[in-house]
Amino acid sequence: MNENENAFVDSEEGILELEDEDGNVERFEFVDRAELNGTVYYALIPADYNEEDGNAEFVVLKEEIVDGEEVLATVDDDDEYNAAGEMFLKRFSEMPELDMDEIEELEKLDGVE
């Protein structure tokens, strides 16, 4: 994936459909968004990830302006990718854990069942 000018967002599911340089569309679930050194990064996991299979590896993309429009692009520099990945790992470690009972209770409050 180089640039995703037409990234489709399904706001109800939090799913992004991104097109790679070969025209293949992949679906990702939005996990987090944060800024580091003036650049906005996104942490995404494959939409077909199954929690029972273990920990999912997340993908880091960055926001760029191309022809006046915001696009998501791959992070080609290893040091930059690692720094953004570490930032997200730190953020994830600081998030409170929710167990399934708490998630189900929150969904009931939101009207989702």
Number of helices: 2
The percentage helix is 10-25%
* Spatial gap, N to C terminus: 35 Å
Strand content: 35-45%
Number of strands: 7
Mean pLDDT: 78
Helix/strand class: alpha+beta
* Biggest β-sheet: strands ordered side by side in the sheet: 1-7-6-5-4-3-2
Q: Quick one: biggest sheet?
A: 7 strands, antiparallel
What is the rounded Rg?
15 Å
Q: Give the CA-based shape.
A: globular
| Residue windows where pLDDT falls under 50 for at least 5 positions | 4-12
Count of structural domains: 1
Q: Provide the succession of SSEs.
A: EEEEEEEHH
Characterize the structure shown.
This protein is an alpha+beta fold and 113 residues long. It has one domain (3-109). It is 24% helix and 39% strand. The chain has 2 helices and 7 strands, in the order βββββββαα. It has helices at residues 78-94, 100-109, and strands at residues 3-4, 8-10, 15-19, 25-36, 39-46, 59-66, 69-74. It has a 7-stranded antiparallel β-sheet with strand order 1-7-6-5-4-3-2. Strand 6 and strand 7 form a beta hairpin. The longest helix has 17 residues, at 78-94.
